[in-house]
Amino acid sequence: MTKIGTRTILIVPMLRSDELIGTLALARHRIEPFTEKEIEVVMDFAAQAAIALEITRRERELRELQMELARVNRIATMEQLSSSIAHEVIQPIATARNNARAAQNFLEMKPANLGEAREALDSVVAAADRAGDIIHRIKDHIKKAPPKMERFDVNEAIRNAIILTRGEVVKIGASIQTHLAEPLPFFRGDRVQIQQVMVNLIVNAIQAMSGDGHSRRELQISTETDAAEGVRVGVRDTGPGLALESLPRLFEPFYTTKAEGMGMGLAICRSIVEAHGGRLWATACEPHGTLFQFTIPAEAGNATS
Questions:
Q1: 26, 45, 236, 295: which could form a disulfide with 220 (CB 3.0–4.6 Å)?
Q2: Would you list the DSSP string of 90-146?
Q3: How confident is the model at residue 73, as a pLDDT?
Q4: Torsion, CA 192, CA 197, CA 198, CA 200, rounded to 10
Q5: Shared domain check, 128 and 103
Q6: Are strands 175-180 and 218-226 parallel, antiparallel or unpaired?
Q7: For residue 229, what are the CA distances in angstroms to 155, 294, 297?
Q8: Does residue 258 share a domain with residue 125?
Q9: CA–CA separation, 195 vs 160, rounded Å?
Q10: Which residues span the domain enclosing 130?
Q11: How far apart are alpha carbons 95 and 134 in whole angstroms?
């Protein structure tokens, strides 16, 4: 409590986990001390304000994380679709070339067939515009950026992925059980990409359980140390499971067991895991359900966190 001129000012610190995140000042336009009750009310208000600020900060971080995950997913999807994209671009270029050749032939006629030549050249312009549109759509869809290799906590990346997908889990009336080993070896890689793998696997499990009439819908997520390969992550659902004949093709691009699926999610996951030096596989569970597991190598020569 401070007296300045004819005013009495009460300054209360705003703390969150013993960290000062701001101050709250209350001024009285007369020299009169604040009562204990008034001080208590202001301190309670400051505590609530600190909580509100922390929630706002976390919501902002979550939105930024969602945007980053979306960006990585777009990049991975474009990489998987590169051959299809190449075909889409090559086709109008080939069409433009053929029409340009036809226009040359019409102009070389005696006399020149200007009407046909003009029509062929119009087709060249249309094909070139189409190729340009395809390229612009790709540029708008992604922004190429190198992976950000950093040291991070795999369990924390998994927890963030769970937060991002919690709404979808709740929507189908499922529950999540986590068994995250502590401590885990340090891992160096692109945190956002590993989170994207987890998001894709969780969404895949949710989709598997959403159409199932089984009353128990449970998602089990686990981590453990793997002596040979570093860290092993597991995502198990209680859906109807997969047919054994589909397992060998499960991670192929464009292969899907869903009526409306593109068949890209699991292919993206495998490409990310393998780019980090790990491997991803699926196992049919008894009596039902599917277990997806992937390993990522620990950082060479590190101690556990």
A1: 236
A2: HHHHHHHHHHHHHHHHHHHSSS--HHHHHHHHHHHHHHHHHHHHHHHHHHHH-----
A3: 64
A4: 120
A5: yes
A6: parallel
A7: 16, 10, 5
A8: no
A9: 7
A10: 81-141
A11: 15
**Do 162 and 134 lie in a common domain?**
no
What integer pLDDT is reported at residue 90 of this predicted model? Answer: 74
Q: Which two tokens stand for residue 224?
A: 């453990």
What's the DSSP call for residue 177? Answer: E
Q: For residues 132 and 155, state if they share a domain.
A: no
Count how many domains the chain has. 3
User: Is 128 found in the same domain as 21?
Assistant: no
Q: What is the pLDDT of residue 179?
A: 93
Task: Give the CA diameter of the chain.
Answer: 107
Residues 166 and 281 in one domain: yes
Q: Tell whether 68 is covered by a domain.
A: no
Tokens matching residue 160: 């963030």
| Continuous segment of H or E residues that includes residue 193 | helix 191-210
Burial class (CB in 10 A: 0-12, 13-18, 19+), 4: exposed
Q: Is residue 72 part of a domain?
A: no
pLDDT of residue 301: 44
Residues 133 and 154 in one domain: no
Q: Which residues of the chain have a pLDDT value below 70?
A: 1-8, 10, 17, 29-32, 34, 66-67, 69-88, 91, 133-147, 164, 167, 212-215, 229, 243-249, 253-264, 300-305
> Considering the domain boundaries, does residue 30 fall inside one?
yes
Tell me the average pLDDT of the chain.
76
For residue 11, list its beta bridge partners: 25
pLDDT at 86: 66
Q: Do both 12 and 123 map to the same domain?
A: no
Query: Residue 139: its pLDDT value, please?
Result: 58
Helix (H, G, I), strand (E, B) or coil at 28: strand
Give residue 234's pLDDT. Answer: 95
